[in-house]
Design goal:
The protein is globular, with a radius of gyration of 26 Å. It has a 3-stranded antiparallel sheet with strand order 3-4-5. Strands 6-8-7 form a 3-stranded antiparallel sheet. A two-stranded antiparallel ribbon has the order 1-2. The longest helix has 26 residues. About 65% of the residues lie in helices and about 5% in strands. Helix 14 packs antiparallel against helix 15.
C-alpha cells in the first residue's frame, strides 16, 4: 500500500479548490489504504481522515461520496470485537448507497453487514450473506461473480456441506486466478482451512501446492506449525513454534491469526505460550471468527479457548468452553462445527476418572476409552450421538436434536397452520404492492427494504413446506429422527462391542433410545438400543 498512500497524500495536498467533490473520495481512499497497510503507525492515522472525508461529503450532500466515505470510516474502525459498533455505520452506508442508486456500494454494504452479524453469531447473517451473493451475481461482471462464488463457499462451510464448500472454493480460485484477483489464492487457502477445521484435523488438508503459497504473515511460522500439527508431526511443529515471538504478533482486524496460534500451540507449544494466547483470546469469548469479509469461517472463539484450556490441563474449564462453543454454533446453524465442539466437550473428562466412558475424535478416527482400556473406531454418526449422550449423563436428549443438531419445534401439527400461511401470503401481497408503488415513485430505498422483507418471508414459508409445497409436519420430523438415531446408535454400540467389549456392554445397559435418548449409567434401561 506504500505507493498508493504516497500518491493519495500528494493528491490530497494538490487538490484545487475548484474540485471539492474529489476531496472526500481521496481522503476516504487514503484512510482505507492506511488501515490496510502493514505499518501499524499508519492505522492510527486512518480514523481521523475517514471522519474528515465523511464530513466533507455531508457538506456537499453527495450520497455516493457519503457512502464511499462511510466505507472508509467502517474500515478504519474495523478491529477485533468491534462488530456491534460497526453496524450503525454499515446501516447508514447501505441507506445512502440505495439513495444514490449505487449497486456496487449496496452490494459491498451487504457483505459488511453479513460479516458483522456473523461475528456476533446472529443467524440473520446467513440470509444477509445470501443476499450479497444474489446482488453480486446480478451485477454480472467477473469480479462480482468471483465474490458470489467464494462467499457461497463460506455459506456451505457454515452449513456443514463441506464437499460443496471445497468445490465452490476451487471454482472461485480458478475464476479469481483468471481475472487477476489478488486475494484469490489467500481466500482459497483460508476456505480450505475452514473446511479442515469443521471436518476434523485431517478431513480436508489443504492442497500442498497452495497451502502456504500466500504467506500472509511473513516471518511468523504459524501456518507451518499448524500444518505440521495437521500431519501429526508435533516435533516439527514444536521447532517452528520455538521461533515464534508472541510479543511480535501484529495487530489485525480479525482473529484469523490467533486461531492458527491457538491450534498449533495447544498441540505443540509451551505452557507459557498456551497461557499467553488463551489470555489474548479470552476477551472475545462469545464471538465467532470470520476471516475478512466472510472469506471464511473458523467457528466460535470458545472452541479455541477449549483447545488451549485442555492443553494446560484444565479439563473442566475446557469442557465449559466446548459446551459454550457448541451452543453458539447451534444458534448460528453451523452444523459441522457444532458436532466438533460437542465431540471435544464429550472428551473433556478428568483422566483419573476411568469409570466414565470418554469419546474423542481426531479427523475420521474416534478414540474411545473406559475402565482404563482404549480403542479406536472410524467415524460414524452413531458415535457422534453416543458422544453427545455420554457428555450429558442422566439428561434426556431429543432424537431430533441428535439427528439435526437443533432442538425440535414445539407441537405436533403442521409447522405453519392455515391461518399463519394466509397471514404470510397477505403480507407478501402487501409487500409486492409496496415494491411496485415505490418503483413507480422512483423510491429505491423503500423498494429495497420491501424486497428484503419479502425475500425473508419467502425463505421462512419455504422452510415450512416440503417438496412440491406440501406442509411439513413436526410429528413426521420426530418419527424420522427417532428411527434414524435408534438405528445408528445400535450400529455404533455393535461396533464398539467388537473392539471394546466391556464398554459395549456398559453402553448396551446404560443407553436408552426412542423419541428421547438418555445415557443413565446408574440405571438399567428398560428400552435398550
Amino acid at each position: 500500500h506504500a505507493e498508493a498512500i504516497r500518491l493519495l497524500e500528494e493528491a490530497s495536498r494538490a487538490l484545487p479548490e475548484r474540485a471539492p467533490s474529489l476531496r472526500p473520495r481521496v481522503l476516504g481512499a487514503l484512510a482505507r489504504d492506511l488501515h490496510h497497510s502493514l505499518d501499524e503507525q499508519d492505522w492510527d492515522r486512518a480514523p481521523a481522515l475517514a471522519e474528515e472525508a465523511v464530513a466533507a461529503a455531508r457538506q456537499q450532500d453527495d450520497h455516493a461520496a457519503i457512502a464511499f466515505s462511510l466505507l472508509a470510516l467502517h474500515d478504519s474502525r474495523w478491529r477485533r470485537g468491534t462488530a456491534a459498533a460497526r453496524l450503525p455505520v454499515i446501516e447508514e452506508m447501505l441507506a445512502v448507497s440505495v439513495a444514490a442508486d449505487d449497486r456496487e456500494m449496496v452490494t459491498q454494504a451487504r457483505l459488511l453487514r453479513a460479516t458483522a452479524l456473523l461475528e456476533l453469531g446472529d443467524p440473520e447473517a446467513l440470509a444477509e450473506l445470501e443476499t450479497y451473493c444474489g446482488h453480486s451475481h446480478d451485477l454480472g461482471h467477473a469480479r462480482a461473480r468471483y465474490g458470489a462464488t467464494s462467499r457461497r463457499a463460506t455459506l456451505s462451510l457454515i452449513a456443514g456441506d463441506l464437499d460443496r464448500a471445497r468445490d465452490l472454493a476451487a471454482e472461485a480460485f480458478t475464476l479469481g486466478e483468471t481475472i487477476g484477483e489478488v486475494d484469490a489464492r489467500g481466500v482459497y487457502e483460508t476456505l480450505l482451512w475452514g473446511v479442515r477445521r469443521a471436518g476434523g484435523i485431517s478431513a480436508a488438508a489443504p492442497d500442498p501446492e497452495v497451502a502456504l503459497a500466500s504467506e500472509p504473515w511473513r516471518e511468523l511460522p504459524l501456518l507451518q506449525a499448524a500444518t505440521h500439527v495437521g500431519n501429526d508431526d508435533l516435533a516439527a511443529a514444536s521447532r517452528a513454534l520455538g521461533q515464534l515471538d508472541l510479543g511480535r504478533l501484529p495487530r489485525t482486524h480479525d482473529l484469523e491469526m490467533l486461531t492458527f496460534a491457538a491450534e498449533a500451540i495447544a498441540a505443540a507449544g509451551t505452557d507459557d505460550q498456551r497461557t499467553h494466547v488463551y489470555e489474548m483470546l479470552l476477551p472475545y469469548a462469545g464471538l465467532h471468527i470470520v476471516v475478512g469479509g466472510c472469506a471464511s469461517y473458523f467457528g466460535a472463539v470458545d472452541h479455541y479457548l477449549g483447545l488451549l484450556a485442555r492443553s494446560r490441563g484444565d479439563v473442566d474449564q475446557a469442557g465449559e468452553h466446548f459446551r459454550a462453543a457448541a451452543a453458539l454454533h447451534e444458534q448460528l446453524g453451523a452444523a459441522a462445527m457444532a458436532r466438533r465442539s460437542r465431540s471435544e466437550a464429550a472428551a473433556c473428562r478428568p483422566s483419573m476418572d476411568q469409570s466414565a466412558p470418554a469419546f474423542h475424535r481426531a479427523g475420521d478416527v474416534w478414540t474411545i476409552s473406559y475402565g482404563g482400556i482404549e480403542a479406536h473406531l472410524p467415524d460414524t454418526k452413531g458415535l457422534h450421538d453416543l458422544a453427545v449422550l455420554v457428555a450429558r449423563p442422566a439428561q434426556s436428549v431429543h432424537a431430533v436434536e441428535l439427528h439435526t443438531g437443533h432442538p425440535p419445534q414445539t407441537g405436533a401439527d403442521d409447522v405453519l397452520d392455515r391461518r399463519a400461511k394466509e397471514s404470510y401470503r397477505r403480507r407478501l401481497d402487501e409487500l409486492q404492492s409496496d415494491i411496485d408503488e415505490a418503483e413507480a415513485d422512483n423510491d429505491l430505498y423503500r423498494a429495497e427494504k420491501a424486497r428484503v422483507e419479502r425475500d425473508s418471508l419467502i425463505a421462512q414459508l419455504s422452510a415450512a413446506t416440503g417438496l412440491g409445497g406440501r406442509d411439513r409436519r413436526l410429528g413426521d420430523e420426530r418419527e424420522r429422527a427417532r428411527k434414524a438415531v435408534t438405528a445408528r446408535i445400535r450400529d455404533a454400540i455393535a461396533r464398539i462391542k467388537r473392539v471394546h467389549p466391556r464398554l459395549g456392554a456398559h453402553l448396551h445397559n446404560a443407553v436408552q433410545t426412542g423419541t428421547w435418548c438418555t445415557y443413565a449409567p446408574t440405571k438399567q434401561s428398560s428400552s435398550r438400543p
